[in-house]
Design a protein that fits this description.
With 233 residues, the chain is mainly α. It has two domains: 12-88, Arc Repressor Mutant, subunit A (Orthogonal Bundle), CATH 1.10.10; 93-232, GntR ligand-binding domain-like (Four Helix Bundle (Hemerythrin (Met), subunit A), Up-down Bundle). It contains eleven helices and two strands, in the order αααββαααααααα. The chain has helices spanning 12-25, 38-45, 49-61, 86-89, 95-119, 122-140, 144-161, 165-173, 175-189, 192-206, 210-232; strands at residues 65-68, 72-75. The protein has a two-stranded antiparallel sheet. Strand 1 (65-68) and strand 2 form a beta hairpin. Helix 7 (144-161) crosses helix 9 (175-189). The chain is elongated and about 55 Å long.
């Protein structure tokens, strides 16, 4: 039999997402421009604020928009090509997708942290400390976009510290997926728990304790899995 299912209607938030993105692609809203408030956009689209907020969060996750505390939402200064990349649009993840990535990460990142704790040089540790310092700054500024990139750099640095080319190459191969995943996680779950766990992992690696490093990354991912499951309810 054919594997065909009835076509479902698109959600209102997806329609809003496409229209906002199209306005940015067509330079109606240019890089640096401030978007109207959520209330104003809701009136313009004649939809609820929830639909507006969902669409905006997706565009922030893609790096097309950025939210500035106390100022509003702005179009980011990024090459227009990113707006036209259909693959990038697929990287906005639903809770089920995030769960699968978290399950995958439990395996590879436990190994990565264990090897890094065993093999890290003093220079490696100093590099990781600088990245954690950047994360602390992004956290204090509540800059989710910057924190997300610092977050990826942290895990990429640990992959390099593992001195295992397969671990490092897998992280690089999945870079776009992982960044999109981190962005969704940081937006939905907040930064408080994230920064705390990264500091614990750093301290374990500094004292070359593979068991502790493995424990803290697994604990971090298990907590995230619990939070994502709550979102699915």
């Amino acid at each position: 039999m054919f594997n065909i299912k009835p076509i479902e209607k698109r959600s209102v938030s997806e329609e809003v997402f496409d229209q906002i993105k199209d306005n940015i692609v067509k330079q109606i809203w240019s890089p640096g421009d401030k978007l109207p408030s959520e209330n104003h956009l809701a009136e313009m689209f004649e939809v609820s604020r929830v639909s507006i907020r969902t669409a905006i969060h997706k565009l922030i996750a893609l790096g097309i928009l950025e939210s500035r505390n106390g100022e509003g939402t702005f179009v980011r200064q990024i090459n227009t090509g990113i707006y036209l990349n259909s693959f990038t649009q697929m990287l906005v993840l639903e809770p089920h997708d995030i769960l699968e990535l978290l399950e995958f990460r439990k395996g590879i990142e436990r190994l990565s942290c264990e090897l890094a704790a065993e093999r890290a040089t003093q220079q490696d540790i100093e590099t990781l400390e600088k990245i954690v310092g950047n994360m602390k700054n992004s956290y204090s500024e509540n800059d989710v976009s910057k924190f997300t990139m610092d977050d990826f750099n942290f895990h990429m640095c640990i992959a390099k510290m593992s001195k295992n080319s397969v671990v490092e190459n897998v992280q690089m191969l999945l870079k776009d997926h992982i960044i999109a995943h981190f962005s969704e996680m940081n937006t939905k779950l907040g930064l408080d728990l994230n920064i705390e766990n990264h500091i614990k992992i750093l301290e374990a690696i500094k004292v070359h304790d593979p068991k502790a490093a493995s424990f803290y990354i697994e604990e971090s991912l298990d907590r995230s899995i619990e939070k994502v499951k709550e979102l699915e309810k």
